[in-house]
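WARN retry 2 of 3 for item q-0093 after timeout on previous attempt; input resubmitted unchanged.
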Amino acid sequence: MKYLTPFKWGRTAPSRQYEEHPIASFQRAINSLFDDFFKGFDVASVEEKLGSFNPKIDMTEDEKELQITAELPGIDEKDIEVSLLKNVLTISGEKSREKEEKSKESYFMERSYGSFKRSIQLPAEVEQEKIDAAFKKGILTISLPKAAKEVPEQKKIHIKNS
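OK item q-0093 returned
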């Protein structure tokens, strides 16, 4: 009888109880577990502790050039390599950091190392001889002038009479 009525006996106000699908309930519980676990963590510090580093990259394009900027904080210019092969630009490097704290009662030293490599398929042909790269305050800026497209001369095509 209790399954046929939308209310429970002994209550004055009707209440509906819907059973949640077990998979949806499980997914909600897992999401809540991960949210609670990662609450208070700084994602950058987790990546640093794990030794992984994935720099943020932006690419802009206009009619004359492509410009790529990469955020590389804490990396020296000598530790960065930029190369171009078959219209694929690759930015790679290594990040290392040492932190040392000394006091009268304690000594603390922390080291973190990690390498990265990002490859970007360029949407247009570029003039390899005119590529320019600059590194300032942790930002790598690469200017890639587009190759001039040759506009074919107009050619009149003769139509044969068959």
